[in-house]
Structure formats: structure tokens, C-alpha cells
Amino acid sequence: MRPVRDRRREAAKLYEYPEHLRGEIDALPRAPGVYTFHGPEGDVLPLYIGKSVDIRGRVMDHLRTPEESMLLRQSRRISHVRTAGDIGAQLLEAQLIKAQQPLYNRKLRRTTRQFSLQLHRGAVTVVNSAELDPARALMVYGLYSSPRSAMSALRRIADTHQLCYTLLGIERGVAGRPCFRAMLKQCAGACHGAEPLGDHEQRLRDALEERQVSAWPWRGAVALEERGTDMRQYHVVLDWQYLGSADTLTAARRIRGSVGQFDRDAYRILQAPILGGLHRIVPLAA
């Protein structure tokens, strides 16, 4: 079987502007939202879901790209959903991709496992999201797709800040003796008393701080107000999980949803808007 790259190159050579989609473009607005490329009517899954602050401009970018000729030839229509701004577009895109699993989307797929680093009394462990709720936990750092990627991040932190692999649990060592990296001057020496353990732990805390997962700061759900040039939306969020959007606060209060596994995509989208103070946040708890 030929490599995927070769098949894509061959498809690009056969590129023709998709005239059959020209009429679809006329219905697309120059405004924020989410767009979907649909295949033949009998297909269960959409082909591709994307978002932009300029739906029409972004879709036209697809149409000009020979490398996407396979997607374009299979597409039969293009639908869209307007949002007030980029936050709503990002949230809706992530939600739809996880729910519908489009053929050509690779990012934002549903993740069944995710991991973080947890610090307790100077010791670092890798915890599974099934065992710990990052929305409520303290001293939890980073969001990773596997234990290996979490440990790789911890190694990078240790290398950058001369932290001890032995004390961090990355490597085994003999208590009171210099670790191998200490002999190479790559560890500040907390493993054998050259650095106080308290100083080592503080440097570890400082290094991890920028990766800390923020605990959910409210007792219940909130509505984040996003205003666009011609549209306003209230995005309902609980424990860093997106439940839906509405055009009015009254409608937002009626949105209900079950909180499942911590969603790191929603967290990354929402952390700055929720904590940044630039948007109105309305608590919805009774």
C-alpha cells in the first residue's frame, strides 16, 4: 500500500476548483462560527468540522488548497452555525468534533485518558483523570495524553531547574548518596544534602506553577457572556466543562447537562476567558 503522503500528492495533482460548492459559499457569512463539510446524504459522519471568526474566508481557504482536493471532491454541501465570537466558535467546534467524529479531523477527538502531575509533600506522582477530578483538585499540574508524556514533561522541568531525578521518583537512588546527575552537576544536590530539601521542593513548586490546573472557582455553573458586533451569547460552563450556549440569560439558566470526564480542550479554551476578567461572568446557581 502506498504511503498516505504519496496518495495526498497524487490527489493534489488532480485538483480542480470545486465548482459544485460555489453556490454553498454564497450562503456563508463573514462572521464567527463553525462550518461543516458534508459528504453524500447517506454518509453517517461529516467529513470535516472547522471554526473561524470569518466563516466564509476560512472555507474559501480550503477551496484554494490543492492538498485538500480529496475532501473537496467528496463534499456535497457546507453548513454553518453562527456564534457571537471566537470563544463560542472554539467551544462548539470542540463539542461537535467529539460528538460526531468527522472523517478528516484529527485534533479535538474524544480522549478517553488524560493525566496530570500531582505534588504532595515534595513527591510527584502521575494521576489519571479517572482517579482525580482536576476541576476540584489542588496541586495538579499539566494535562497530558499519557503517563509517558507526563513523565517527559517532568524530566524537562528537572533538567531546566537542576532538580533531582531520585527525589522526583524518575530514577531510583540510594538515600543520602549523590545521584548520577549530581555528579555531573546537573542536579543541585538535594539528594545528598548539598541543597536543603525545603529549597528543592520550593524550586519544584515554582517550576510547576505555570502548569497548575486551576480549580473551578464557583460553587456551580456560570454563564460567560460573549458579545459580537451583531450577536450576544451566554456560554454555560460547569467544572470547566461546556454545557451549551444561549442568546439570553433566561435561556442559559435552562441549560442542563451532565458533567463527565474532565475535558482538557474545554479547559484550555475557557481558562483565560473565565479567569481573565475581560468577560462578564454570571453565576447560575440558585
Automatic annotation (TrEMBL):
Keyword Iron-sulfur: no
Protein name per UniProt: Excinuclease cho
Keyword terms of this UniProt record: DNA damage, DNA excision, DNA repair, Excision nuclease, Hydrolase, SOS response
Superkingdom as given in the UniProt entry: Bacteria
Gene Ontology biological process terms from the UniProt entry: nucleotide-excision repair; SOS response
NCBIfam families given in the database record: PRK10545.1
InterPro entries for this protein: GIY-YIG_endonuc (IPR000305), GIY-YIG_endonuc_sf (IPR035901), GIY-YIG_UvrC_Cho (IPR047296), UvrABC_protein_C (IPR050066)
Any GO CC annotation of this UniProt entry: excinuclease repair complex
Disulfide bond recorded as keyword: no
Family annotation (Gene3D superfamilies): GIY-YIG endonuclease
Gene it is expressed from: cho
A molecular function (GO) term: hydrolase activity
Domain GIY-YIG: from-to ranges: 30-106
